[in-house]
Amino acid sequence: MSATAEPAEEVTGPDAMVEIRSVHKSFGPLEVLRGIDLSVRAGEVTVVLGPSGSGKSTLLRTINHLEKVDQGWINVDGTLVGYRRSGNKLYELREREVLRQRTAIGFVFQNFNLFPHLTVLENVIEAPVAALGRPRKDAVAAAEKLLARVGLADKAGAYPKQLSGGQQQRVAIARALALEPKLLLFDEPTSALDPELVGEVLDVIKDLAHGGTTMIVVTHEIGFAREVADTVVFMDEGRIVEQGPPADVLDHPVQERTRAFLSKVL
Amino acid sequence: MSAQTEVPTPSLSVPPGEHAGKEEAPRIVPVRRTGRWAAAVAVLLLLAGALVSVVRNKAFQWDVVGAYLTTDSVLRGLGLTLWLTGLVVVLGFALGTVLAVLRLSGNPVLRAVSWGYIWLFRSTPILVQLLFWFNIGALYPQILGVDTVNLLSPIAVAVIGLTLHEAAYAAEVVRGGILSVERGQLEAAQSLGLGPWRRFRRIVLPQAMRSIVPPAGNMLIGTLKGTSIVSIIAVQDLLYSAQLVYHRTYEVIPLLLVATLWYVAITSLLSVGQYYVERHYARGTAGAR
């Protein structure tokens, strides 16, 4: 294993938003990430594909430190996530510092995880007010703009359970955007939706992609990957099997495992 | 069963659509629930009988009940029962919440201490605990240089004893509530950069309350009635005030009825209050479609 991996300057390109190097992660005896290396340039959309259990969601969760890595390191915008480097050691950060780092990384969950006891508006302003200390008035004004952007300006006073799944996920996206993150992470954002609601959520994500937001999207939507992704990453059994532009990976996959996967889902 | 054989059999062979438009749609006749009616009548008769006997039996002495219901000593006792209940529930749930959080913490020592507390205070009868605190002076004649007997009045013993007992049960109620909140809620709050206190106060606890309120309402009502146990250490609560009167006048039943009526009245009020508290914490779910 490449245990000697260290945050070297030369691999961090000037426009690299995310640098993942030699990341390993196990849950008990099960090794779910077996040495992941990945770079994402600022403004680019990376779509991660792969079968269930391939480790793609876990990888995404390590990027905002919801899961701690066992080995390797992750840089977001030039800052180590979850650790402070001193000499050849990585010291785990205190929770307060990790929380501050997370405010620069938006995360959208498969099951939305909206706060059901708060209204849509309260969901969106919670983090700007509580985590960034913005004045409530400014946060409300910003939230109203974001809700308009995801097409839900008239739902500010509703509770999440009064909305459809697609609407809830769009609120969740607005909530993530409210922190003005440098990076957006999507963990199977349409997998919990009824088929007819997938489109409205993908449209919002596409809109963000065209607006130049850096994002990593774990999904099963091949069509979306083809249309929006700058880079498609195919993962299997905790490793990146193949990566490149969608035209290469989706239409002319080199690896047998990629071809087998695509033949099943296409 | 004979009713079924009266259905003209030829019509069964006709396809359902055939007669549509010509005939009216068949009327639905609900089944007769004779047993249900009979049971209701029997129970109502029994209830009426019981009511008549209660009203006509002079030994209930309803006039005495009325005379004592709002006397000063009874109202003072009621007042003590009310504030003792309130204090014990508030302090008990405060301590219980701390115990629940310790029990769920990542620190194994704190977890074990919380578990041990709950185990100990749930494993012994409240009566034994109260008598123990009442006699604590035998173990520690002096606390911080003051005679224990002077420091701990019967009322102080009642508050301490009931609160420590309440906290053990409250801890489990609160813990159950916290565990009922989906894990994704905490992850969402973490990924939004919310600090631990904010996560608990703003995200977890309000959602936990939905599961906490029904058993907590149960506990509140149980505590209101349970405070009557302090009469054994001569604290003048509602029951003891009634007892003081009947020890003098021997009107045992009417004075027990005085206490009963007050307990029923307060408990009923609390049940109504619980309904509104539950409705408050159900916001965001009640309108689910």
Q: Your description of this structure?
A:
The complex is a heterodimer of chains A (266) and B (289). Chain A is of the alpha/beta class and 266 residues long. Chain A is built from 9 helices and 12 strands. In chain A, the strands form 3 sheets. Chain A has a 6-stranded mixed sheet, with helices on both faces. In chain A, a hairpin with a 2-residue loop joins strand 1 and strand 2. The longest helix of chain A is centred in the C-terminal third of the chain and has 16 residues. Chain A is globular. The N terminus of chain A is likely disordered. Chain B is an all-alpha fold. The longest helix of chain B has 32 residues. Chain B contains 12 helices and 2 strands; from the N terminus they run H-H-H-H-H-H-E-E-H-H-H-H-H-H. Helices cover 70% and strands 1% of the residues of chain B. The chains are: A alpha/beta (266), B mainly alpha (289). Chains A and B meet through helix 2, strand 8 and helix 3 of A and helix 9 and helix 10 of B.
